[in-house]
Amino acid sequence: MKTRADTSTHTSPAASINITVDRADDVENEQSLGSSSAKEDEKHQYLGPRALTLLGGSLLLVILLVTLDVSILATAIPKITDHFHTIADIGWYPAAYMITNASLQPLTGKVFTYFSLKPAFIAFVAIFELGSLICALATSSKMLVVGRAIAGMGSSGLMNGVLTIFAVSASPSVRPTMMGLLMSFAGAGQVIGPLIGGALTEHASWRWCFWINLPVGAVTIVATMFIGFPVYKAGKTNWTFRDVIRDFDITGFAIFAPACIMLLLALEWGGSTYSWSSATIIGLFCGSAGAIIAFIIWEYRQGESAMIPVSLVRQRVIYSCLINAMFQYGGMTVFVYYLPLWFQVIKSLSPTMSAVNILPTFALQITSAILIGALTPYFGYLAPPATMGSAFVTIAAGLTSTLTTHTGAGKYVGYQILNGVGRGITMQQPIQAVQSIVSPAMIPVATATVAFAQTFGAALFISLGQTTFINLLSHALRTYAPDVNAQDVINTGATNYLATLPAGGANADTRHGVLRAYNHAITSTFYLCVGCGAGAFVASLGLGRTKLETKKDKKKRDQEKEDAQNRSEADERRGDISSSSGLMESGTSGSARDGTS
User: Fold this and answer.
1) Residue 94: beta bridge partners?
2) For residue 226, is pLDDT > 50?
3) CA nearest 68: which of 193, 251, 215, 194?
4) Whole-prediction pTM value?
5) What whole-number distance in Å separates Cα of residue 345 and Cα of residue 328?
6) Domain 13-248+307-552 grouped into CATH 1.10.8.470
7) Which stretches does UniProt call biased (Polar residues) (predicted)?
8) What average pLDDT does this structure show over 130-142?
9) Residue ranges per domain, the chain?
């Protein structure tokens, strides 16, 4: 079925995209959602219940795979730092994955627009698996970082692919509930990720955190091969090198990727490897700023063919969703990585038990995500849950920053419950809002842009978190434990160094000082979560009255459609009667004239 793209003075190749769906017998016709910018009456084909169930199972596997890999290192990082005898790269283990992920995200929107979803999707899974294999075989911390970077390249297409396939497969009436289910699986991946990572690290080896991806990825590839995906086909099939450069905006990507990398390198190295006033850091910041300005100018000139169309991101709802997604995922990533570290260092818990202790966050995140997904078809508006959830997250992060070495379970469990509820009701709103106001032809690019905002936010704030942690730890060690060498503590790793300091005896004061220093450094990273929550709250106000089609709206629309059809049929019947009457009168007049003659 051909899908109309928004018209403009500049004709984009995306405007001629054809969208077809395998298993046509399972397709149901419904109107697509939208606002004035997305043609509310545009027709689109969606999968029926049987095909959607089969497809959904495969998508859930992929969501689980991606989120598992993001969080599985949360409880394994202390053991990894002990194995390689350094914590200098602790921020790079997640950041390398996210830098490549974020840099490639916008480009994957073009890939899924112009190429068949299934082979492109499987190719991204294969790249992800290669990166996981390198991580599992890593013989140095640097090799592990390289493997994480390659895995991030593959992951860049997985989340966007899942969201794109789902957006064109599920009808608007069931999409919120299904999206809630998908997001709950994303939460489940974050729940079982630390649990699996902790168990494998404690009872086998941290390397199994990566080996486990291989069979899961293999199952995903096999499953997707037998599922009928919606297929995007470009308007032209004969590609030339010039076509690829123009339509995929390779020039834009060549400007965009270095801008991201330079910015994140500056944040990662600043205050640790190099001083903030060093020529290296200043040069990276200046280079990043210059590249970003050049990228914006280039994208503006490219129009609708741009990797990130300016006409898309300048819409209030779109840029509000991008900002909200960036802050939400940035704060969540910092929380996921540093709360388990607090449990292991301050509470002396094993990796497995530290994962068990963060279950309240993700259990409530799953529950609230499913609940809000089920309720959305009844009230439709996206701003209220996004705003309320962001407020909950901000308050919870502020409370978590007050943790001390003596904080009891009642407080840190309660803080996590508030955090989990907040994230569960807000994290799916940006994707739903963006997909609801763009035409189907623009869904891959729009989804990739939101996915980029999420990934970039996570990479940005985990780098800021690492910088904050290392700098404050060095300062706090000099304050609370002046007898120890701060660099020795940093290089040795938290759990290894504390193991050399018995709880009693002459080392008791030193041990207590080291614990206070670690507590101060870790809890200070949660201030970033407070800022992220506040930023997400402000951005959520930009959603305004964005509304998904509710069941009541659908019923009203169907009734109006039926009434219009009935009126049309009635008009046709009246026309037929009038025509028949006219013919009869004509026949009677003719007979009368014949009689007179």
Assistant:
1) none
2) yes
3) 193
4) 0.76
5) 26
6) no
7) 8-19
8) 90
9) 13-248+307-552, 249-306
